[in-house]
Design goal:
heterodimer, A: alpha/beta, Rossmann fold, 2 domains, 7-stranded parallel beta sheet, 7 strands, B: alpha/beta, about 15% strand
């Protein structure tokens, strides 16, 4: 049984489909259900559990619902993310901290709620979707980068703390993924989505962006039998993007 | 009809441990396997060759291509381990041999194989390093240095060939239950294992699974270090 946040589109959507193909029953969350989530739940044999993960009460209720209706949580994929680009000094503090609340605090509370279920079941897998920007930082994305760097550190800490309980936590730090999310980057750069894609392709040594299926495959590995000795690691399917530039 | 479409994997160090587990897994998934080791390996084409013998290795790789017509992936697991030697006591012979087998063997295999992969503009090479090279170790400094050199070598080759269809990545195993760890190895001691989050050695099959994953699904990795290490290095 798997739970994927941010599943209405993009990477979360692809991840839910991949985990279902791997044999999981998947509960899917996104901030709202405009029909896409219910549609997806039907395809992945699971359950739609919409709501804002930044709301502590929602998180508690969501895990309770999943426990009651599907029996537990064996794999938790923390993928939901808010990103609004803007200069550090210029961005509205409310917008800055909202990204921390959703990306970091929301998933922290989700992990807190899911871990008792995993312990009762004797183990589980937690996959936190971070970002290359959490490894290297990025201009005009301080909140996003901070939240993603925090998820990396959280994965390491949870890896150490929960490993002895059979719960394996890891993070994935992808670089550029070809999804609608790139519109945020494009808007910040003042260029079209296609121009943004082209620009990012040029930054990636292997000359291409990741597809959502590529990254869903990383989740599949970590959630599956092949990942049984991988704990506290940060997988970087980033096409060779270098962490720092001279 | 095998799902692998007759793909061929070359495994060095295929006679035992991680290499043997890797060859077995790929074979199980329908690949044809070519093994290179000092001793015979359970592979479709087993050749005895010392990876420090550059021209002998070149001939062995050519023989694989001659037999199968192709190599699609390679897992470089040839190596050995020595522990319990103070840094000041490591002899020149011990140093040279460790560098020669682990770094030299990796260099030689890449030199023999990469031209073929580049010509086909396709292929995946996985070098086996070690978690000891990620965070350091003690009383095995020549091993640590050699495994560390492999990290720099493969990351550089990955960058050098990024614009081609050839991918190179690294698996850095944690302490793994293979013959490389003697019965009295410090890595087998109960008090050491108790320090690991997973409280146990890694199984060679888990390293094989990581290599198989990188080869078959790792299109976005380029010079990546994947470390199934039971939590030894986080």
């Amino acid at each position: 049984m798997a739970l994927v946040t941010g599943a209405a589109q993009g990477l979360g959507h692809a991840t839910a489909l991949r985990l279902a193909a791997d044999g999981f029953v998947v509960a899917v969350n996104d901030i709202a259900d405009d029909g896409r989530l219910t549609d997806l739940a039907g395809r992945v044999g699971g359950l739609a559990v919409p709501g804002d993960i930044a709301d502590p009460d929602l998180v508690t209720a969501m895990i309770a619902t999943v426990h009651e209706r599907l029996g537990g949580v064996d794999v938790l994929v923390g993928n939901a993310a808010a990103m609004e680009m803007g200069s550090f000094l210029g961005q509205d503090p409310a917008i800055w901290w909202r990204q921390i609340e959703v990306n970091l605090s929301g998933h922290f509370r989700l992990v807190q709620a899911a871990v008792p279920l995993m312990r009762a079941a004797g183990g589980g897998r937690i996959v936190l979707i971070a970002s290359e920007w959490g490894v290297s930082g990025h201009a005009n994305a301080t909140a996003y980068a901070a939240s993603k760097a925090a998820l990396i550190a959280l994965a390491k800490g949870l890896g150490r703390e929960l490993g002895p309980q059979g719960i394996l936590t890891n993070a994935i730090a992808p670089s550029y993924i070809d999804t609608e999310q790139l519109r945020v980057d494009a808007a910040d750069a003042g260029i079209s989505l296609d121009e943004m894609r082209q620009r990012y392709c040029e930054l990636v040594p292997i000359g291409r962006l990741a597809t959502v299926e590529d990254i869903a495959g990383v989740v599949s590995f970590l959630a599956g039998p092949g990942g049984s000795a991988v704990v506290g690691q940060v997988l970087q399917p980033n096409g060779g993007v270098v962490r720092t530039r001279a | 009809m095998s799902t692998s479409d007759g793909r061929v994997v070359l495994v060095t160090g295929a006679a035992s441990g991680i290499g043997a587990a890797t060859a077995a897994l790929f074979r199980q998934r329908g690949w044809r396997t070519a093994g290179i080791d000092l001793r015979p390996s359970d592979t479709d084409l087993s050749q005895a060759c010392d990876v420090t013998d550059r021209s002998g290795l070149h001939s062995a790789v050519d023989a694989v291509i001659g037999r199968f017509g192709r190599v699609d992936a390679a897992v470089l697991a040839a190596g050995y381990y020595e522990e319990g030697i103070d840094v000041c006591e490591i002899t020149k012979a011990q140093w040279d041999k460790m560098l020669g087998v682990i770094l030299g063997g990796t260099v030689n295999t890449c030199a023999a194989l990469l031209p073929h992969l580049i010509e086909r503009d396709a292929g995946s090479v996985i070098a086996i390093s070690s978690e000891l090279a990620l965070a350091g170790s003690a009383t095995d400094l020549h091993y640590v240095a050699a495994k560390g050199a492999v990290l720099g070598l493969i990351k550089s080759l990955a960058a050098e060939l990024a614009a081609t269809g050839v991918r190179l990545n690294i698996v850095a195993p944690g302490p793994t239950d293979t013959p490389l760890l003697a019965a009295d190895s410090l890595w087998r001691k109960a008090d050491y294992l108790a320090t690991l989050p997973l409280g146990r050695l890694v199984r060679p099959q888990e390293i094989a699974a990581a290599a198989y994953y990188l080869v078959t699904e790792g299109v976005m990795y380029c010079g990546e270090v994947l470390s199934p290490n039971a939590g030894a290095v986080i």
